[in-house]
Amino acid sequence: MQTTILDPSLTQTLAAAREPGLTLIIGNKNYSSWSMRPWVAMTAFGIPFQEVRVLLDQSDTATKIAEYSACGRVPVLLAGEMTIWDSLAICEYLAEQFPDKHMWPQDVAARAMARCVCAEMHSGFAGLRTDMSMNIKAKLPGRGRTAGAQADIGRISEIWEECLSRFGHHQFLFGDFSIADAYFAPVVMRFRTYGVSLAPALNAYCERVQAHPAVARWITDALAETEVAAKHDAELPD
Predict the structure, then answer these.
(1) 3 to each of 96, 108, 128, 164, 165, how far by Cα in Å?
(2) Which phi and psi angles does 164 have, rounded to 5°?
(3) Helices (DSSP H) in the chain: which residue ranges?
(4) 91: Cβ–Cβ under 8 A, 6 or more apart, which residues?
(5) What are the distances in angstroms from CA 106 to CA 30, 38, 109, 138, 177?
(6) DSSP 100
(7) What distance in Å separates the CA atoms of residue 234 and residue 232, rounded to the nearest whole number?
(8) pLDDT, tens only, 190-200
(9) pTM here?
(10) What φ, ψ does residue 93 adopt, rounded to 5°?
(11) How far is CA 44 from CA 85, 129, 178, 180, 222, in A?
């Protein structure tokens, strides 16, 4: 995997991103929870790709993203001439293109459950997103505990407990690492940043997720970033 920080003056970067193969456009690894999901999935399952990182909260961020997608958001997957601009759609596309990787659980019931919990994560948990935004470098124990965020923490705990007990055999949510674990990895990061107390089994799950090589690599990269997205830091709750 090759990483590029996009400079709009370098037209070769844009051309390279449209070469055959896969290119994933992401934001800052410290902040971009949506970017983390497909990046971790692709890395965990050994799917080769080129990475292009667009810095968030810059005067030209929107212009840079627009070079790849009209939606104005990251992540974006470029697959030859195709553009896929939604994190869950990216993961579904990859699962279809690489069926031998078994990115979803193979058991029918487990696979249906995994899709359900990913869809719920994709569309819900507004309180957690708003009041406990991802910031891997930060340490903010006790912050952001609004009623909405607390309710989301409770619901996520329920999801994890059910998945681990029914399918996970106390390893990952569905036994082997899957798209579902990649999808909840940014939540694990939030819980770490904000010092969320969980039941011992769920704490152990969070530790396993953080120790997974793909997640650990993302964390290392995030901690090494020197750029600051001022708006994201400003939005941290008091």
Answers:
(1) 25, 36, 30, 34, 38
(2) -65, -40
(3) 11-17, 33-44, 61-66, 87-97, 108-123, 126-131, 147-163, 179-193, 200-211, 213-224, 230-234
(4) 37, 38, 41, 103, 118, 179, 182, 183
(5) 32, 19, 9, 37, 12
(6) G
(7) 5
(8) 999 999 999 99
(9) 0.89
(10) -60, -45
(11) 20, 24, 9, 12, 17
DSSP single-letter state for residue 51: E
Give me the pLDDT at residue 11, please: 40
Radius of gyration, alpha carbons of the chain = 17
* DSSP β-ladder status, 76-79 and 22-26: antiparallel
Q: What is the pLDDT of residues 44-91, one digit of tens each?
A: 999 999 999 999 888 888 898 989 988 889 999 999 999 999 999 999
Angle at 51 between CA 91 and CA 41, to 5 degrees: 30
* Token output for 91: 């993961």
Q: Exposure string (b/e) for 6-24, b if CB count within 10 Å is 16 or more? A: beeeeeebeeebeeeebbb
How far, in Å, CA of 200 to CA of 207, rounded? 11
State the Cα–Cα distance between residues 162 and 158, nearest whole angstrom.
6
Maximum C-alpha span of the chain: 52
